Amino acid sequence: MCKKMPTFINFGAIQRATRVEILKVFGIMLVISLVLMLILSLILKSFYECEGAFGDTVHLDLRDHPNYDRLYNGKCIEEYHGEEDHKFPFIARFVVVNDTEKFVFCSGSLISDDIVVTAAHCLAGITYAKLEVHVGTASNIEKFINFTEKDIKIHSKYDSKKFTNDIALIRLNRKFDPSTISTLCIPFDDEIIRKNLTMGEWDVEKIRINDPKIIETTVNGIDNLKCGEYFHNLVEVVQQTAPSNEISELNKKLVNKNNQKEVRFEQFCTEKKSVTPGNSGMPVYGNDLKTGAPTIYGFVSFGVKKEFGEDLPTVLTRIYDYRHWILCHSY
């Protein structure tokens, strides 16, 4: 009978196998780390690098931005010594020139000494050569003309049917005169649901003459859920009498993928303010709660015709959600 051979444990082989396994695990962890670092770098790149709207790609740390203090830190508006009756030295009016007349068709806000923010739908599809941007007081208007495509930045994801990302910038071809014109800040915080915000409204009877008048109004911010309910009730009430194409257009702007009417996160509403001609892009602003500086919280994107009701909200583009985009493209 054969003797059973004793079993020997090859500790050297085990150690070698263990080292191999450790190296494999280390290699896997290294690959995972590299992938995570790549993802993180892409995310950071989206915040701190953007294709320049008016030139080359820029690498941007927001606090190093040349307009950072002016846009954020309450240095954006100077003491104003212009006409006493001119309360809106930061509003730009967009004038279209045709064969017989000039008239205001949209509005915008000066946020630096050569950048105007406005609604994308104001600029999409227009002939830039026919655009004039007027800023300043009634007796001292500065006119900016000869715009080309390189002077205009429309948000790349603007949807003309749903009015999402309804924001654009215009770079003026020179800096304005600070003695008669000033600017609005962009907000530190998302403090939209506030009372007693200010909005201008063009006097419809005088909008087509050389000296258009702005009527000052006070509006209150409302939360998006409540705003969506307003529009839901509106469609339910008027769908039997309103032209089908108008209801269809409203639905396109408000209905989400679940067939629910909503105001999107990057939008907000002010209550009881129907929109009049030329008011697209008109700012809604108030004093920043921290700095006291006049600050733009949004601008008019769309609303509902007055014949549908006087107490319907206006939907605005929420500036806070586009603060990085604005800084990137106003470099």
Automatic annotation (TrEMBL):
Family matches, as Gene3D superfamilies: Trypsin-like serine proteases
UniProt entry tagged with the keyword Transmembrane helix: yes
InterPro entries (alphabetical): CLIP_Serine_Protease (IPR051333), Peptidase_S1_PA (IPR009003), Peptidase_S1_PA_chymotrypsin (IPR043504), Peptidase_S1A (IPR001314), Trypsin_dom (IPR001254), TRYPSIN_HIS (IPR018114)
SUPFAM superfamilies noted in UniProt: Trypsin-like serine proteases (SSF50494)
Molecular-function annotations in GO: serine-type endopeptidase activity
Protein family (similarity comment): Belongs to the peptidase S1 family. CLIP subfamily.
Name used for this protein in its record: Peptidase S1 domain-containing protein
